[in-house]
Design a protein that fits this description.
159 residues; two-stranded antiparallel ribbon
């Protein structure tokens, strides 16, 4: 294995890949874009900081995710109590609210899982799909999409 010694370092730090200028602590920094063999930590998603100051209690620091989870929990409870349409609508609206919170707030705590764009797209698509399906549920749907009935007629028959 080829190991090179950083010529600018007095301690003789041994590095095994390409280096460039030293970082703030004086250690050599990687110049290659290739991933290291072993991952030492992961980057926090953008906006993944606390939603409240550090000295606030834990629930206050994570209020965005707790608000979304509380709404989803209430929706699941309503669904279990035989209010299916209202419960699933609440679940979908909670996901849409999560997408809006992720978009508007700079720090949303644990609501930030991936990049901002990916989180917004995921919460938005899932929330919209759940809301639309809740509005189309039988009997007496609130939303009727005519081409869906024709599609089902041609794919599923009662003969």
């Amino acid at each position: 294995m080829n190991s090179a010694v950083d010529p600018g370092s007095e301690a003789g730090i041994v590095v095994r890949d390409a280096i460039s200028a030293p970082d703030v602590d004086g250690r050599p920094r990687r110049a290659t874009r290739r991933f290291p063999l072993f991952t030492r930590d992961t980057a926090r998603p953008e906006g993944g900081g606390r939603a409240a100051p550090r000295d606030a209690p834990a629930p206050a620091r994570q209020w965005p995710v707790l608000a979304v989870l509380a709404a989803v929990g209430l929706g699941l409870l309503l669904t279990a109590l035989d209010r299916f349409r209202v419960g699933t609508l609440l679940i979908g609206l909670a996901l849409l609210a999560g997408a809006v919170l992720r978009w508007l707030l700079p720090d949303v705590g644990m609501l930030a899982v991936r990049s901002r764009f990916t989180d917004i797209a995921t919460y938005g698509v899932l929330g919209t799909a759940i809301v639309l399906l809740a509005m189309m549920v039988q009997p007496d749907p609130w939303l009727v999409i005519p081409f869906l009935k024709d599609t089902l007629h041609f794919t599923v028959t009662n003969s």
